Each structure stands twice: as structure tokens, then as C-alpha cells.
Fold this sequence. Notes:
Elements: E1 6-15, E2 25-34, E3 45-49, H1 68-72, E4 76-80, H2 93-96, H3 102-109, H4 114-129, E5 134-139, H5 141-152, E6 157-163, H6 173-194, H7 196-211, H8 224-228, H9 239-248, H10 259-269, H11 275-279, H12 295-301, H13 324-327, H14 335-343, H15 353-357, E7 363-368, H16 376-385, E8 389-394, H17 401-404, H18 408-420
Parallel strand pairs: 3-4, 3-5, 5-6, 6-7, 7-8
Antiparallel strand pairs: 1-2, 2-4
Helix pairs in contact: 3-14, 4-5, 6-7, 6-12
Amino acid sequence: MNPAYATVDHVFTVPLDHSAPHGPDIQVFAREVVDPGRAGEGLPWLLYLQGGPGGKSPRPSAGSPSWLPQALKTHRVLLLDQRGTGRSTPVTARSAARFASPAQLAAYLGHFRADSVVADAELIRRQLCGEQPWETLGQSYGGFLTLTYLSQAPEGLRACYVTGGLPGLAATADDVYARTYPRVRDRVLDFYARYPDDAARLRKIADLLATTEVRLPNGDRLTTRRLRTLGLALGMGDGFERIHWLLDESLDADGEPSDTFLHQVMALTGFTDNPLFAVMQETLYGQGAGSSGWAASRVLADLPEFAEDADPLLLTGEMIYPWMFRDITGLRPFADAADLLAERADWPPLYDLHRLAVNQVPLAAIVYHDDMYVDAALSLRTAREVGATRVWVTNEWEHDGVTASSGRVLARLMDLAGDRA
């Protein structure tokens, strides 16, 4: 236990399929965190909904996550490992390989969308709080979860805070990626403007990979398309520097990719800890209006500026491509099931547009004007379509502002929600 916090670990048994409660069960883990000096008080609960999909909740340490001390001034916090992540019956390459067929694995994975996560949260709330509603803090994908929660069970919510995560309520995967690629292009060009030598270095590495077989420490081949996925980091506040310093040590004295670089690329692009991020990415936009059909890949094919031989070489962002499931060791057991998920057209809707329109639960959201991952225009449209919503638009932070701001973002959102209440 960290001396700054008092913690209690909770494990809950929940149905894999909440519509068939007598079927198979899975385990969901959550960690309760409270100020030690207030552990005996009846504080209101704040449920943290992590970004993702496929991201486990943060593990608390001194001052981390940076918003936690602010939250603990007034709340008891629940850090939830969403189903399939962390200690919640994790979905891993090893567990995926145990399924008898891709169809069985795809059917299993179909129970790991936002509607199931919200149903888990409601079951947990009733066990911890009885009929008392709680508050939620949703970061990124956690904002998507929040709107599903407001659609399915608003009676369980007292107030909601969303940081960089108001989705387009009717946006398809094609809509999202058509908007996302230009933002990624602009972010990469901004990165090159800050670090001009890195554009030439990336081009040099890509040219080398096109003519030479380079293997990562786990045996995966490093290709230009995998190299480009490093751009995922550029939407975070420290993303430019993370990529810059990675490239700073990328080539050894002989002009070959260094061992340090190859190890770091393997870790950053391997999806070992979060395969659900890749597997479930395009299912976020499944609303019963047809299949996603690998939308990010289809949109990319019509953008010549993103060609692998283009100069400057444009990195990609929060996009998942079918080749990843053949090229990346940690994703290979999911390959055929991922194809089935991409073909699935009957996804249940995640948002109840009428219920959201008449929502009365105070919702306070920050929209990052330059957010690389979540389209600000779609977020603002959603804010107009959801009742009891107040929005704060800023370009002071990137997508991770709730962490970078050391609690200031959360404090202001709580004030905004209090005004709405």
C-alpha cells in the first residue's frame, strides 16, 4: 500500500454476457483508493473510466496519476480494470490462442464493448453503493463509455466528467478516419518543423527497411508500415519528445538500427499488454449501420500523401490495420477473429440519442482544440445534442491534459458540473 493512499482491492464476478446472466462468468478487478485520513468517512464515489479500448486502470503511486490527489480531496475513487484488461480476466495472445475457432473467439470478443463495460460498472456500483449514484471521470475512450452509461443507466450517475472523449454519436468509422488522417498529417508536419533532422532520419530508416530485412528482438520483421505506427504517440503532451529521443539513438555507428531502438520499437508497437486496443478499435463505431470493413485501411488507400515512399514520410496515428494481425506476434492469434469483427454488421447501438437529448445528469467535458485522436468538431456537436452538458474548449493541453494539468482539469470540471447541477 502506498503511504499516500489507503487502498482496497475488489474482485467481482460478472456475466460474460449480461443478457444471459446464467451463462459463463468472468472476473472484474477494481482498486478502491481513499485519503488515509478520511478512510472512515462516507465519501461520494468517483469511478475512473480509463482510455482505450483495452487500457487497464492506472496503478497508484506517489503523485500518480496526477489527478488522483485532487479527486481524493472530496471522493473515494474506484480504479476499474475494464473487462479483459489488467487483472480482469485478461484477454491476451495466450488466452486467444486457446479458442477452438476464430468464430468462437470473435463471439467472445463481441462482449468487450462499451455496453458490457457499463453493465459491469452498474453491477459493481450496486454492490459497493447500494442504490446511491456515483460520479465518473472518463478519459478519452472513457468518455465514450460515459455516454453509453448515460444511455443505459443514467439513474446510476450523479455527475460525469469527460476529458478529451466526447464521441460523435452517429459518426461511422469512415467518418472518423476521414477526419483523423488530416489531423495526423498536420501533427507529423509540426513534429518535423520542431525537429527537422528527424524527417530525414525517419526517411533513411524507412529506405533501409525497404531493402534490408531487419528483425526486432522477438523475431518480428520491422517494416516501414510498422515503423510509421510510432506516430500514435504524437497526440500526447510529451509525444514529440518521446519520438525525438527514440530517433536520437536509432542508428548505430555503422548506420544500422541500434539494439536500443529495436527494443523500444518492439515494446511501443507490440500490443503485448493491450491487444484489445487493436482488436476492438473499430468496433467503437459499430452502431448497427453496417460493418467497419477495416475503415482506417480503406481511407488510407485514397491518401497518396501517406504513401510509404512519400517524402516526407508521414507517420500514422490511432489507426489499426489488418496487416498488424499477421505481422505482430502479440496480435497473430486474433487475426481471423479480427477479420470477422471487421465484417460484423449487427453491432447493437451504444448510444440512446433520445435519452441523451433529455439527459439531466450534470456532464462537464473538456475538449482539446487540437486533439489528434478525438475530433473537436464532432465533440462539440455531441455536446449540443446531450442535455445538461457544459463544455470547456482549450488548446492549453494535448489529449492527456487531465494528467498533464496535475488536477487542474478535474477541479474545473467538477466546478462546471456543480454549476450545472
